[in-house]
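Person: Show me a sequence?

Helper:
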Amino acid sequence: MVPAGLAGRVDLNNIPLALVERVDALTGAVVTIYGADAITGVVDFITRKNFAGVEVAVSEQISEKGDGHFMRADLTLGANSTTGAVTQSSARVQQSDRSPGRRDSGRYARSIPE
């Protein structure tokens, strides 16, 4: 079951980033296996299989102007047995306001000299 809105669009924020092994972008003749809905391409999110253990990942970013702070922390737990596997992933994200109006260059329209 995939969380989606009434229009059928999937909210990619519901896919735990720590559980994504890779992302495949398929175009051309390869997408014909997906049927008529895949007109221009398909994006496959390949998730980890049989993850066992604990993984902690923390990242922090800031813009070159010194604003726009972004911090993300992920905690992933997993266990396997002969009858199956269970995986849990949690994430915490903090982001400061980076709206263009907060910088002097974003308050005024720019003109390009001829």
Observations:
- The chain has one domain: 12-96.
- DSSP finds no helices and five strands in the chain.
